[in-house]
Structures are given as structure tokens and as C-alpha cells.
Design a protein that fits this description.
This protein has 522 residues and is of the alpha+beta class. 24% of the residues lie in helices and 20% in strands. Helix 5 (193-204) packs parallel to helix 7 (246-266) and helix 6 packs across helix 10. It is globular, with a radius of gyration of 23 Å.
């Protein structure tokens, strides 16, 4: 092989040597992004949906009120682009009220202005999250945008404190639909439909209420049964070859919700593409939870149908309230998802002091596509075969409670309340199943959690992947609350898997080959 071809191949492969996430089962050749595009074009949609919804294989089905419930008084209705939280004045300025989790960079991207054009009557921090409730004045020159009504609070999209008291098992069993009796073979294990919802909710950090409501809206599985059992393999209607069954489609749903949510949160995704490939600009006054829902539904519908699905009196938000009560009331009770002044607790490197580890990957997806670049990777310099389970240990970076330890993942709850949905949480991934710590274990700093390995997803070298969440929201490593371990701050590169650890004038550069510049000793 000519040397230049080898070098190009190595450059392509290096980002993949450090960390890969759980992948769906292989699909047939030709079923990549282009197949997904064609699939989405083929998803059923009808003109004039209004109070009806197209379920896969069943034709239009009326969305009927659930017995014993009533339409909420706060039903979101179509509004114009500037009717919520102010409108442009005669000078062309939009009066904007800061939401929890806003940043100047994201706001400037959403409004299409420079950071310096954003005017505030109060002093704003130069970095980090902005104080919720402050008023900003921002030039408006966007032209036509989508509706500004907020459809769901952020806390109802992510796996947040509002889901702590939700009894998934009881809800599904009492609803009595197909989901309550559904099961699927996953890796030679029979897994119930309820457990699949729970698994995807916790892994991707998506609210299980939202997954259930979307499943009901698209297929009727929560309260009813498939009209056409032969087409029940695609309950949400993605119809991607090789990705049939509830679990695969739940993973796609979760991924796309995260794409919309974090793309809006970070100001990197400002438009939606409808099923007919037409595009429209998102309204800068919505919240990430609304952006997530608008993005997902645009994949299934043309714009005129999308408008009815989300904003008609019998649209999806109304069904959601019928199933679970008022989401805005739960959100107000639970408090801000991202509180003002949020800071990371003190964390140490996830390995023993004195050991030599390699910083093999800089910031990359915290869990899977769509999640922010919140994770970094470390590999023990312990010798042996690349994928041999290391005898060294990944350790607790802080005291806490292990709330989940399964399928090569350990989730460490730092506030100690035993809930993955609240406060600061650390995710460790690619830990060997052998000698993995048990769930519900109380740990102190440096207690052992598991051995770095290649297990879980696909990896070509033993390592531990570590990422953070706060109140269920994935946190970017180089974001408003920087990832800091043993006093070293993570700095992202433009490219995934590339980055630095910085402490004062010292730097360590990520490298999947584990060369000398990537070595770190705690």
C-alpha cells in the first residue's frame, strides 16, 4: 500500500480509535443518510390533519380525549412570530426575556446578530449562562419565522426532576395498550416494551413521558393496538431498513429530540426541514424543548400539516396534557433546569493518583449523535493487548451514589439523593462487565467502579469515557460550565475527539495513540 494512502486511512480512523457509542445493528448497504432522507420523504402525511393524525398503517385516526380528562385551559394555539414576550418596537428592536440556560453566543446566533448588538439594562456576565428573567433588546431582521408559542418546557424533554415521581410501569399497565404486552429480543434477551422505554429514557436522557406521548400519537400503542400488525415493526414510522422494532425506533426518536434540543441550546441548529424538504427558520423566542419537538415533527410532516399537529386544538401538546396533566405546572414546581450561577463541584481525575493515563480523546458526543460534546476519554498506560480488559480501575471522581450500573455504564449521582434526573451526575462508559460495581452502592472519592475496556458499543482500545449531566441535561465539556478535573480544564478543538487539558501554563494534548504529549498523571 502506498504510504500516502496509509496515512489518509490512519487520519480517518484516529477519531474512532478512542470511543464509540452503542450502535444499532448493522443495516444493509445503501441505507445511510441518503436512505434516511428517502425514508423520511416516504413517511405518511395527510393534508389538512387538524384533529386527526396519521398512524403508520392505519390511516387517519381521530385523536379522542382520554376518558376522565379534559382539555387544559392553556392549550397552545397558533400565534404570530412576535406575540410572546414582546415584539419589535419602532426602532426594530425585539424585547427578549432571558430563559434558563441562555448564553450570549446562542442568542446572537438565533437572532442572527453580533454579540455586541445585544443590549441589556443590567450588567451581564462575560461568559457562562445568563441570569433568567433579565430583559434584552435585540435587533430583529429575520423576516418570516415559525410560530413562537412554547410547546413544552425543557424539563419535559430531558430526563429531568419532573420525571422522578413518574411511575412508568403503573402508567403503561393501566393504559392497557399494546405497549403493556410488547416485548422484543435484544442481544438474546427478551425485553419488555416498558423496559425499552426506561432504557432509552435513561441512556439518552429523554423524558419517558415524552417518549410515551410520541408513541401514542404516532401509533396508538399506549392505549390501543396496531391496526395492521404486519406494520407494527415501525411504530413511529421511520421505516429504515435494518432498524425495525420499538427499540431501534425509540433510539432514533431520542437522537432526533437531542439534535433539536441541543442544537437550539447551543445556537447551532436554527432551521427545521419538513418532510417535503422545505426549510423554515425557527423563531428565536422559543425554548430548547419546543425546538426539539418542532424539529422532530418536521421530519414527518409538510409545514401545513406540521402546523396543525403542533398548534391545532387537538394537536400533540393537547394529547400530552391529557395523558400527563399540565407540563408547565410540573416545570414551575421543579424549578429552573439550569439555575443561575451554576458551577461544577470539585472533581478529580477518574483514576488513582500516581498512575500514568493517556488523554485519548478530547470533547465528543456525551452519549450519541445529537448530544453536546460533553465527554472525554482516558486510557490506562498499563500495557497488554489494545482491547484486553485493564487490571487498573476507573474510580469515583467524587463521592456519590451509583444509581445505574449496567451494560458497561456506571452513573454516579453526586448529590446523593439516588436519582439520575437531579443535580450533578457523572456517566462512565466502556467499563467491563466483570467486577463492575453494583447499583445503589455508596462510594467515596477514589472508590473503584470498574475496569476500562472495549466493551459497550465499538472501541479499538480500552478506555473510560466520562461525561456530565445536570438535572438531566447533558453538559458540554467546553461550555458555560467548563469540565474541570483535578484542576485541569478541558478545552475543545474544532474537531471532535481533539482537545486539550489546561492548568495554568501546562497543557496536555489528546491523542488516540497515547503518545507522550497525551500522558497525564494525577
Amino acid at each position: 500500500m502506498p504510504r500516502w494512502i496509509y496515512i489518509l486511512a490512519l487520519m480517518w480512523a484516529l477519531p474512532w480509535l478512542a470511543c464509540n457509542f452503542p450502535k444499532p445493528k448493522p443495516v444493509a448497504p445503501g441505507t445511510g443518510s441518503e436512505a434516511l432522507r428517502q425514508t423520511m420523504q416516504a413517511v405518511p402525511s395527510s393534508s389538512g390533519v387538524e384533529a386527526t393524525q396519521v398512524y403508520p398503517g392505519s390511516g387517519p385516526v381521530e385523536v379522542s380525549p382520554i376518558p376522565g380528562t379534559a382539555y387544559p385551559d392553556t392549550t397552545p394555539l397558533p400565534v404570530d412570530a412576535t406575540s410572546v414576550s414582546g415584539s419589535p418596537d419602532n426602532s426594530g428592536l425585539f424585547t427578549y426575556t432571558l430563559q434558563s440556560g441562555d448564553t450570549l453566543d446562542a442568542l446572537s446566533a438565533r437572532f442572527g446578530v453580533q454579540v455586541g448588538q445585544v443590549v441589556s439594562g443590567q450588567a451581564l456576565p462575560e461568559s457562562g449562562y445568563l441570569p433568567a428573567g433579565y430583559t434584552l433588546y435585540i435587533p430583529w431582521d429575520l423576516g418570516e419565522v415559525l410560530p413562537s408559542a412554547r410547546l413544552l418546557p425543557d424539563s419535559e424533554v430531558v430526563y429531568s426532576p419532573t420525571s422522578v415521581d413518574f411511575d412508568l410501569d403503573s402508567f403503561v399497565q393501566e393504559a392497557g395498550g399494546y405497549l403493556s404486552v410488547y416485548s422484543q429480543e435484544i442481544d438474546d434477551e427478551t425485553v419488555s416494551g416498558i423496559e425499552l422505554i426506561r432504557r432509552v429514557a435513561s441512556q439518552a436522557s429523554i423524558n419517558p413521558r415524552l417518549l410515551l406521548a410520541l408513541l401514542e400519537y404516532r401509533s396508538g400503542w399506549v392505549y390501543g393496538f396496531p391496526a395492521d400488525p404486519e406494520r407494527a415493526e415501525y411504530p413511529f414510522g421511520f421505516y429504515i431498513p435494518g432498524r425495525s422494532g420499538l427499540y431501534e425506533e425509540l433510539q432514533i426518536i431520542a437522537t432526533q429530540l437531542n439534535v433539536g434540543y441541543y442544537g437550539w441550546r447551543q445556537g447551532s441548529r436554527l432551521t427545521v426541514k419538513f418532510s417535503d424538504q422545505k426549510m423554515a427558520r425557527l423563531n428565536p423566542n422559543i425554548n430548547p424543548g419546543t425546538a426539539a419537538l418542532q424539529h422532530l415533527m418536521a421530519m414527518f410532516y409538510r409545514q401545513e400539516d406540521w402546523q396543525s399537529v403542533l398548534y391545532a386544538p387537538a394537536g400533540f401538546p393537547v394529547l400530552y396534557s391529557q395523558m400527563f396533566g399540565d407540563p408547565w405546572e410540573r416545570d414551575a414546581f421543579s424549578g429552573a433546569l439550569i439555575p443561575d450561577g451554576l458551577s461544577q463541584p470539585v472533581l478529580e481525575f477518574p483514576f488513582q493518583a500516581g498512575e500514568r493515563w493517556s488523554f485519548t480523546a478530547g470533547p465528543h458526543a456525551a452519549w450519541d449523535s445529537g448530544t453536546p460534546r460533553g465527554a472525554i476519554d482516558f486510557s490506562p498506560v498499563s500495557g497488554g493487548a489494545a482491547c484486553a480488559v485493564s487490571s487498573w480501575w476507573a474510580r469515583a471522581a467524587a463521592p456519590g451514589v451509583v444509581v445505574r450500573a449496567e451494560r458497561n455504564a456506571v452513573v454516579l449521582d453526586l448529590d446523593g439523593d439516588g436519582y439520575e434526573q437531579t443535580g450533578w451526575v457523572l456517566l462512565y462508559y466502556h467499563l467491563a462487565e466483570s467486577e463492575l460495581i453494583r447499583a445503589n452502592s455508596q462510594v467515596d472519592l477514589d472508590d473503584v467502579l470498574g475496569h476500562p475496556s472495549c466493551e459497550g458499543g465499538r472501541a479499538t482500545g480500552k478506555h473510560v469515557h466520562i461525561a456530565r449531566k445536570y438535572n438531566g441535561e447533558w453538559m458540554a465539556a467546553d461550555g458555560p460550565v467548563p469540565f474541570v478535573l483535578s484542576g485541569w480544564q478541558v478545552v475543545a478543538d474544532e474537531k471532535n475527539y481533539h482537545g486539550l487539558l489546561v492548568r495554568g501554563e501546562q497543557t496536555v494534548t489528546s491523542n488516540p495513540s497515547g503518545n507522550q504529549t497525551s500522558i497525564i498523571v494525577r
